[in-house]
Amino acid sequence: MSRTIPPPHRLSQPLPLDVKLMNTLSVALGLVFAAMVLALTMAWLMRQSLFNLSALHVQGDLTHNNAVTLRANVAPKLAGNFFTVDLASTRAAFEAVPWVRRAVVQREFPSRLKVVLQEHKAIAYWGSEGDSRLVNSFGEVFDANQGDVETEDLPLLNGPQEQAPLVLQGYQMLSPMFEEIDAVLEQLQLTGQGSWRAQLDGGAVIELGHGSLDEIQARTRRFIATLTQVSSRYGRDLESADLRYGNGYAIKLRGVTTGSPGDNADRKKKR
Q1: Which of 71, 104, 224, 262 makes an SS bond possible with 247, Cβ 3.0 to 4.6 Å?
Q2: Prediction pTM value
């Protein structure tokens, strides 16, 4: 018995357009249904008490704050559960606490938040005397209770707040130089006009003038190199100094007024 086998091209006839559309629609509806089921399942899971926030694990720098106080202050500000809590808002709540510079917040499954804190390290006061602001090691100005500062002999820096990193850099550059003459740089100010002014522990005020930190450093180095010789000649302490000259400086000793080591005729105008 024989049967006729149709040619191969008759076995691979394309599906009609309406069949293709039906198949595509079926797949699409199946995907939509699966997504809806998944969404409903996730919504149900997110409402379960298992995922309610039950703990804040605080670690890191805790010199000026303690974990118990931090939890008490921040926990009432948290909303949602493990899945829905806003980490950015939580971070901001911790960073609003005095002395906290930065907070890193992470979820810990199924119901905890881990918070790692970095506190400000105060290395100078900022502003006028009695101001509550401080400068940290990054040159950032922050508000804090000065009674919480461990070290009482911090220097006082001042200037436009956006220039705080530059003022801090200037202090760190100049302070070791004054130590060479057994003096302590207690205050350093950058005026709004860009002029630098220093004050030593003995009360002496030094006008450093305008310019870059390298220029200020060069003037200070020249001043320090000859100050001891000049002051010892008169046996008096320094009261003030003006370094805003191109070829020397002017100083005032307590009870004596004198000029720079250079000739007055060679001085340039003050900057």
Answers
A1: 262
A2: 0.75
